[in-house]
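Blackboard transcription, Thursday session:
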Amino acid sequence: MEIVGVGEQSLPIRCEYYGSFTFGDVKSIITPADAVLTFYGSTNFLDSFGRKHHLQWEFIAFADRWQLNDYRETREPPSA
Amino acid sequence: MVSAFQIFFLIRADKTARTTADAAKLNAQALIDAESAKVDVVALESNIRELFHTKTETDRLDPLWVQYRLKNYGKSPALIRNVLHGFSLTPLKELPPDVSLSNLTTTITPFQVGQLGQSNGNSWSWRTKSPYTM
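(Written on the board underneath:)
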């Protein structure tokens, strides 16, 4: 758990590919592409009003950079 | 006759009260939304550029990594309870038949800090060569 104040950023969060990422994997993403590499994630956070927010994101690797493909937030009212 | 008028005014008063209550509720909700915490993914860094510029099979490949932070753009603090993330490497032939890479390149919205992206409308369900890692 971490409290992120107004205008502040969290500590760095790092994600590493589990397992070996091979030359063949790289080539499969580059033209002619026959595979898609995505980085995805989600977080749950509470606001000051006790509401639970759920944030999801998904980036796709394109031409050696990440492009945002999906980004959505849902929230639930405070639990009683 | 008088009773009919009274009933009419009673119903109208009830409707007005309900409308006023709904409007007050909406206002309160809007106020809460405006003051709420808003969290975005920022400062995305990765070694993907180095990996993509790998020339030969003998070049050393470091493990793929991504590093990022969560920024609170809202007007009150956010309590981050958990974060899950992962990579997925999926052969195109395993994607749903209505999804193609050329479609993606025309519909993707580049990531900009502080700006919400748009879904491209495709519903994808593929997951994952690696499990969620933290």
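Lecturer's comment: Residues 37-79 of chain B form one domain.
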